[in-house]
Amino acid sequence: MDGKTKMESQAVPEGFAPHFKRSPVTDPWEPLFSRRGEKSVQLGVWLREAHCNPGASSHGGVIAALADSAMGLSCVASQQAARSALTVSLNVDYLATAKIGQWLLIDPRASSRRAAHWGLSTR
Are 29 and 62 in contact (CB under 8 A)? Predict the structure, then answer.
């Protein structure tokens, strides 16, 4: 059994379902999962080789891309009139790594809101 098949057979945390939005950027990282909250969208994935650097730990670019996606979806979810969101600036501080087989959760939280600016953080 290859790593992808093994990860796909693992149960996802409660409330997660196959991600509702596809993108050519994230297609190679499927299957992705999402959980919609009242004002946010969490993303999750069982890490496999496609998500990792040569050291077999989570690749920062994958984390940044998933965080960008989750934050955009969460901005739209929190603004009833919004149909889309565009990232103007993204800063990422990596505090830890994850390994193949671990569940990676992208959990955006609004930290500030101004007329044309949203500050969000993920954990």
Answer: yes
Q: How many CB atoms lie within 10 A of CB 105?
A: 18
For residue 40, the domain's CATH number is: 3.10.129.10
| pTM greater than the 0.70 cutoff | yes
For residue range 35-71, what is the model confidence (pLDDT) as tens digits? 998 888 999 999 999 999 999 999 999 999 999 999 8
Which of these, 55, 89, 58, 59, lies nearest to 72 by C-alpha position?
89
Cβ contacts of 89 within 8 Å, gap of 6 or more: none
Name the residue type at position 30. E
When divided into structural domains, the chain yields a total of: 1
Give the pLDDT confidence of 71-104 residue by residue, as tens digits: 888 888 887 666 777 788 888 888 888 999 999 9
Full domain range(s) for residue 8 = 3-121
Which residues in 65-102 are b (16+ Cβ under 10 Å) and which e?
bbbbbbbbbbbbbbeeeeeebeeeeeeeeeeebbebee
